[in-house]
Amino acid sequence: MSGVYGRKIKMTIFGESHGASIGLVIDGLPPGLGIDIDFIKREMERRAPGRNLLSTQRQEKDAFLIQSGVFEGRTTGTPLCALIPNSDSHSKDYSILKDNMRPGHADYSGKIKYKGFNDYRGGGHFSGRLTAPLVFMGAVAKQALARYGIVIGAHINNVGEIFDRKFDPLGEETELLMSLRQKEFAVLDDVRGAEMQALILEARERQDSIGGSIECMALNLPAGLGEPFFDSLESRLAHVLFSIPAVKGLEFGMGFGFCRSTGSQANDPLYYDGDSVRTETNNNGGILGGITNGMPVVFKVGFKPTPSISLPQKTINVSEHTNTVLEIKGRHDPCIVQRAVPVVEGVTAWTVLDMLLTADIDGEV
Amino acid sequence: MSGVYGRKIKMTIFGESHGASIGLVIDGLPPGLGIDIDFIKREMERRAPGRNLLSTQRQEKDAFLIQSGVFEGRTTGTPLCALIPNSDSHSKDYSILKDNMRPGHADYSGKIKYKGFNDYRGGGHFSGRLTAPLVFMGAVAKQALARYGIVIGAHINNVGEIFDRKFDPLGEETELLMSLRQKEFAVLDDVRGAEMQALILEARERQDSIGGSIECMALNLPAGLGEPFFDSLESRLAHVLFSIPAVKGLEFGMGFGFCRSTGSQANDPLYYDGDSVRTETNNNGGILGGITNGMPVVFKVGFKPTPSISLPQKTINVSEHTNTVLEIKGRHDPCIVQRAVPVVEGVTAWTVLDMLLTADIDGEV
Amino acid sequence: MSGVYGRKIKMTIFGESHGASIGLVIDGLPPGLGIDIDFIKREMERRAPGRNLLSTQRQEKDAFLIQSGVFEGRTTGTPLCALIPNSDSHSKDYSILKDNMRPGHADYSGKIKYKGFNDYRGGGHFSGRLTAPLVFMGAVAKQALARYGIVIGAHINNVGEIFDRKFDPLGEETELLMSLRQKEFAVLDDVRGAEMQALILEARERQDSIGGSIECMALNLPAGLGEPFFDSLESRLAHVLFSIPAVKGLEFGMGFGFCRSTGSQANDPLYYDGDSVRTETNNNGGILGGITNGMPVVFKVGFKPTPSISLPQKTINVSEHTNTVLEIKGRHDPCIVQRAVPVVEGVTAWTVLDMLLTADIDGEV
Amino acid sequence: MSGVYGRKIKMTIFGESHGASIGLVIDGLPPGLGIDIDFIKREMERRAPGRNLLSTQRQEKDAFLIQSGVFEGRTTGTPLCALIPNSDSHSKDYSILKDNMRPGHADYSGKIKYKGFNDYRGGGHFSGRLTAPLVFMGAVAKQALARYGIVIGAHINNVGEIFDRKFDPLGEETELLMSLRQKEFAVLDDVRGAEMQALILEARERQDSIGGSIECMALNLPAGLGEPFFDSLESRLAHVLFSIPAVKGLEFGMGFGFCRSTGSQANDPLYYDGDSVRTETNNNGGILGGITNGMPVVFKVGFKPTPSISLPQKTINVSEHTNTVLEIKGRHDPCIVQRAVPVVEGVTAWTVLDMLLTADIDGEV
């Protein structure tokens, strides 16, 4: 029971990288939302490999085919299914993986869970390709959120030892966030960006991979969004962010920095700015008690290095029950962080939209 | 819709700190599980304040009264309700909080969300007291997990700049984890523990508070637990861990350390240890592709400093629509991390039990 | 996993008839709803036995104690827990039922499901007493619905061979529906009502019981409520109505009468009544494609005779593994239909409120 | 939020009759289940029109294309998506329906709910064609249930005034249930079947339609399946059965017959048949307290006449805001009951499988 999630906006994800197609179904969209196909395409392209030397040389196509839920350019309000057919599969690259378990991947865990019946080719349902439906979902959600003036944007926070500068937690211009979407390598400081890209190419040279993190900001969320306890905004965001393959860490606002801080340093004083309520600092990243306070929501997501590396690795062969050494031939991303930016934005947009659409009736008697 | 969570084992939480009582309902427990009341009491006491100078001097009683779901000492399999009556409330301490919004708390967020109708006394439904039901849930779950040989244990990872040593990610003895439950201040290195406690007392002197983090380990989980995508073990654990008040960061295994690492450093090589499959390192914290691989599950949870401090703080008065200064009199915990240890263990135990109880039918035809 | 249900308004039910108390938790109520305690009491009294000779002579008290979620007379928006303590239990009446399975009851089914660990006293969690929380839920929901001008009312459709007249499917005055709540025996035609009561007393004389049905109407629902497929209004109402003990049949509008009808007879022609859209007939009971069309929602619920009768019955003793004969001493309702009226209304009100509170964002771009 | 339902086995349905395709995603299937494509095809054909004069002369193709979740002929355990492409659409038949609301259909309800943005062609998402995915789901579920020896079968109970004989509630041979699947017109008594078919053809002559009902039996369910209250087997079955278009009534066992019965007549006496527990009668249809007792589960589902008739009907034009008269040209089923038999079996099989796969851990300590 892993392929379905959401409250009002439920997403169902399906597909193996070497099956007929991957895709999603979105249930609960409001009717009448204009669907901008070109915008969705651009968002999908941000994720797709083969765009430059930093990514894999595979030519994945993320062309999508909408099967239902859109009529005359607008959502009908009924379930929307989008298919992303698989094409460039190169099955022969993966036959060795039936019994040799790649370290750092889900091969062994998945084989146990699915009792050996999972489609192991190219990672099957665990393939990073399955982030494409998440980007599609996010693209639709962003269009809905735009009607509220809500903008989600993200940049690469670090690759290896190279760190970009941070977002200003008190807020950035929406134009800045939008501009990041245009960049092939989404950073605020292009000098740092160039250093990161050098690191990545160097990792490729060494047949290795390298990790990194992403910082994400959601602007103009109304105050009052979220719930105490089990549907706090942090819980809901964490749930979908940790669904993204390779995510291993998440911190909101000051995050783990809080652990070495004091209350007098960490608390965000409130003040009236005209009629608006703001805080002087935003260490809490816009969320208190699981509920937004109107300040920008800010968090960082940590990604482990791509497990697929060409260097020889010690592992096991589950058919022969022996220890062995594995060299994974093929084309591997040395770093996935730059491709994960629209994925992080996408699941965030979905979650924010979902929580926004839960009604409260009028409080007066 | 925040008070209910879970798949097979659903927990419903209710209560305001100054209402009649707080409590929970647990739905989906298997029938016939022996309920050890004394064990539950001891777990509740680990959370309760007033045990020593480090915590608040309030005398909260976490005495609980089971209303249903237990018959002749065993679960019936029907919903189990436990009440925790409120007693030592001191309402007069909180009257000022109707309109003055405490920084770092949910006061303002909650007022917007609940349109001013929430019970603001003592934090109401946002009060840290609401972690008592989480510990009760965890105590019941731990009893169920013991039948599988699964043990959950945690220790304080840091308070301020003082760090305990870490768990060995390749595994610890269950006796070590159990022994932590006996300690008032759950650390592996008591020298460090004394230094932490000095820091906490010093913060109290300054009328301030201090943050910290907790490291948690789950031993003997079978491989194959969890799902890709939306019910990955990381997602499920993250969902409940971020439900705990004051949690602002979470990392699994190497966590954010991965972001500055390479694949060759980070991947965990597999090998056969007799018939068992183990990994030489456990940077992935026992979870790959969202599914356990049989190695210990290890993660760290970051807590912000208690927002309640006696120092004067700038804030707003929402009734008069002015900026103001607030001094919160009363008895405040200078650090909540030591009390949060059984809470982190508890929600982890609940989640692990919940995921364990989802069946798969036999794979053969 | 049976004690929790709902989408926006989740209800958790708990309790055994001979445990400490039974009760419920309601999660998702909007904040600021005035809670009229007296109204809830009156609704609970409609369900309670001992009011007259038609019902059991047990003196159940349905006094309730609100634990959370209400502050200064209004909902806070946080989970609302209400306890209904058990009192008049007479445990000695039920000791024989540990091993002798009463025909028509859940004794045997429940023993298998709960592996013998269920509380068998007085039916335990299966006791009809557990309908009291459903009435409480309904009373709160009715108060919320009143703000929309929505009224739910029901009457006894038949007891044995005696039938009341039906509601006019094109609509009744809200005053008529409200007036039924004042009656001890909720019928439209008091002559028929007297005949029904005679039948019931006669059944009591014979130490037997008798079945019946209830007709329910929901007035002033807006059009557009419900979903095609899995959350059709019929599906949602059916789900909760069949949760009521002893319910064995449900039909909407013309119901099974449709099965012997033609399209030309059954279809409801539409017309404009000023600006309103109405239908000339209402065979469809106000629901088409799972969605309301603005006409009154009308349905009938069929109840089997109370299984508890004093006549000797053949059954089994599961401890001795023998066939046996059982005579259930004690005080039994000869008919439960008159007590079930507020229960049917209550779960209907809850469902309607739940579906009403799901938001759609504005359809325009 | 209507397109997703289920607990362990979640089904997501999507599609408009005139969109690119309709289909479903099944999440939660156990891995390793052999998928018999031919069996699925045969089940789909039982539903498809154009097989004989009794049904519409449209040539719908229910050819399906599996996109994911099946590898080397077995389920992988990951989400299974099947597409059913639309082809024979004849859009020009439906253009009049944008503004003229067909009586008895969801046209008006749907237009209000979806604010005019729904795809109205051919009924869009409300089209009876959307029962094809339900049959596909049922075909897969039946294959899984076969491993437990559980068989689901149904026959036409009545069309108009002509009634088939009933199933023996104490049980039928599985061969009898299986044999019904081979028949084009699934009845037990072929003489009655011929009379029904004459009635249907006569209705077609009159440009009218006629209603009917279906009786369904599930054999060999273990005792103990289901829950008290909100997930009773009746509630779960009712939820999915009322999701089927045109269903307006449902009764379990004696159903509405109970309402005119007494306890001494209705209760089912239990007895030991060797080691098995059986009941002498089965008025309760195998379900007590919402839980199976091991006897056959039996129920009847009532269908209204197909709303689409060629006779002139009074209705409204929502664009011009006038009353009007509508004649629906085109090819209409005079009766849908015979096509609904595999749909009723299908959703029943899905529900039974779903409830079977919820685990309970061992009851002993």
TrEMBL record, chains A, B, C, D:
CDD domains given for it? Chorismate_synthase
Q: In which pathway does it act?
A: Metabolic intermediate biosynthesis; chorismate biosynthesis; chorismate from D-erythrose 4-phosphate and phosphoenolpyruvate: step 7/7
What does the function comment of this entry state?
Answer: This reaction introduces a second double bond into the aromatic ring system.
Subunit annotation: Homotetramer.
Superkingdom per UniProt = Bacteria
Q: Which reaction does it catalyse?
A: 5-O-(1-carboxyvinyl)-3-phosphoshikimate = chorismate + phosphate
Identify the EC number(s): 4.2.3.5
* Residues binding FMN: 125-127, 289, 304-308, 331
Q: Write the protein's name.
A: Chorismate synthase
